[in-house]
Every structure is written in C-alpha cells, then in structure tokens.
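Fold it.
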Amino acid sequence: MDMKQAILSLVFLLAATLAHAQLTLDECQREAQANYPLVRQYGLIEKAREYDLSNAGKGYLPQLSLSGKATYQSDITELPVEIPGLDIKTAPKDQYQVMFELQQTIWDGGDIRNRKRLARAASDVDMEKQQVDMYALNERVNQLFFGILLLDEQLEQNRLLQEDLGRTHKQVSDYIANGIASQSDLDAVSVERLNTGQRRIELETTRRAYVHMLAAFIGKEISGETVFVKPVPEDAGGMGIEMNNRPELRWFDAQGEQLRVQEAALNARLMPRFGLFVQGAYGNPGLNMLKDEFDAYYVAGVRMSWNFGSLYTLKNDRRRIDNSRRQIETGRDVFLFNTRLQATQQDAAVVSMRRQMADDDEIIRLRGNIRRAAEAKVENGTLTVTDMLREITNENLARQAKALHEVQLLMNIWQLKYTLNR
C-alpha cells in the first residue's frame, strides 16, 4: 500500500511539473542550434580540413613511380671506322626498358607550406559560412516564439471578451424581462458571442501550428500546457546601432585572408625545385649502348627544375585576386549599409512603441468608463444594446492593443539584438 501511494505521488508530481512546464526564448535558441541538421556540417568541415592538411603534408614523402617502354628505331649509333679482325656489336634497333624511380623533395619553393595554408584558409571560410547559416536560425526561432506569445495574448483577451459578453447576455435577458430590451437585442449579443468563439478557434488552430513548427526546430515535444515565458525587456537604446557583431563580418574577413594566402602562393610558383632521385632499370640495351643484351642498371643524382611558364599568367592571376578582394569589400560595405539601415528602423520602432505604450493604460481606463456608462444608459432606456456592444468591443480592442504593443516591443528589441548580434 505504501508503494502504491509513493507511485501515485510520483505520478501526480510529474503531472504537476509537466502542467507548469516553462519554455524560454534562450532555451529554444540553444535547442534549435543543437538539433538543426546543419549542425553536423561542423564536424564535416573539420574532417575535410584534416584530410586536406594530411594530403598536403604527404608532399614531403618519397614518390615512387614505375614506367616501361618498348621502341623500334630506324637507325642506331655505330662507330665510323672498321677495325680488321674486331667485331664490334651495336645496340639493337628494337629496345626495351622497365624503370623504377624514387624521388625525394628537398625544397619546393614553399609550395607544400602554401598548400597547407590554403587548406586552412578554405576551411576557415567554410566554418564562418556555417556560422552565418546557423545564426540565421535564431531569427526563425524568434519569429515563432514571439508569434506564440502574441497569440497567447490574443487568446487571453478573447477569453475576457467572452466573459464580458456572457455578463452582457445575462443583463440583456434581465432587460427583456423588465421590458427594456427586445429579443433582437439578445440575438445581437449572441451573434457577438458566436463570432468571438469562432475567432478563438482560429487563434487556437494557429497557435498549435506555431507550436508544432517550434517543436520541430528544437527537436522536442511541446505540451499544450507549456508556458512560454516572456523575455525581460532590455534597454535597446544602449545597444549602439553602429556596433555590429554579426558573423557575416567574420565570414568576409576569412574570405579576405584566403585571398591573401592565394596571392602569397603565386610567388611559390616562381621558385625552383630541388630534389634527389634514384632510378633502377632493366632493359636492352643497358647503360652500355654497345651491348646487345638485357642488363640491370641504376642512376642516382640531384635534380633541379624551374618552370617559368607561370610568368605568363602571373599578372592576370594577381589582377583576378585583386578583383575578388574588391568584390568582398563591396559585399561587406553593402551588408553594413543594409544592416545599419535595418537597425536604425528597428531602433526607431522600439522608441515609437514605448511612446505608444505610455497611454495604453489610460485608454483602457477611459474605455472602461465609457462601457460602464453605456450599460447604465441601456438600463435607463436611453441607449440601444447595439451601441453598448460597440463600447464593449472598443474596450476589448483597447486591451488587445496594449497586449499587442507589449509583445511588439519585445519583438522589436529582439529583432534589433539579432540584427546587431548583441
């Protein structure tokens, strides 16, 4: 019996916890960042970086090659004189060779080092672009979260209006009994109650859709009883719209660094290469060209190569990099301009919303007075029920406006925070 009571108590505690579950905007953003499929790209970029660096480093390893050839030539080398009594053999016209060659780089002009730097720079660009894509996820989460908050406020105002209309329905029923109102007046109140009920169904359906989309982003089920906590309003005026910390700026910086590395790599193409080599071969003829038989031999030495072909395209390559650099700078300037313009508009919207909210409570108070006066006039027979319904609706609209302004203020503040990444 004690065990059953303990289990029941645990079940009731769990149910109470779920019933009062809360969800904040910061939690939603963190969960969405961890759940979004694109997050796996971080690991893939790191792996690609490791592979590229490993491949570049293998340029210092000995390079082994195998080659073979079979040829026939129209003439061969012969001595220009004949020695009586001496038969001097010559190489055959058909010749065969199989060769192994081992090469070891001594100095490559910095080519391998630059390939590693290019691999790191390209990886940094990909990583910063990933940061940009993941940061954009926050805006989508913000829109869903504040959309739910706005719908919650509208549902609350709808509930209050339903209560007001319920009281009005009872009042009008009493008025009919006292001969002050007619059945058509009661029907008008009933129509408003039905319209309000339909509006509630619409709001609840939209809210469920928003909750399901948000649940898909964060990868967790969100119960219908979950409370969405309003963020605490911040002083947007202290953000400083000129201070931009968006990840796009770091992405532009990474692209600029990549171009700088590419430009440095152009110089490495102009440098000579030095290396060691060992050749081992088997063929006919061998090193002795006058010996017509298969023989094995080897050759070892130091090799230097210097390719001047890159000089033909060097100037255009540098111009192309410089053109790309100007494109990046233009993209940065356009981004900063648009962001600054957007932040200015959002900052003005925050200021405007605060000024509008200053009069919301007074408007609601005055609308309440007007509504109560209308109820008294209807009771005295000096005002129609239709006019009273209009005042009830106006009071409800004033309350809705206040709730809307509160959520819009939060939305504007967090839009500004997103625009500046603050």
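Confidence is low (pLDDT under 50) at residues 10-19.
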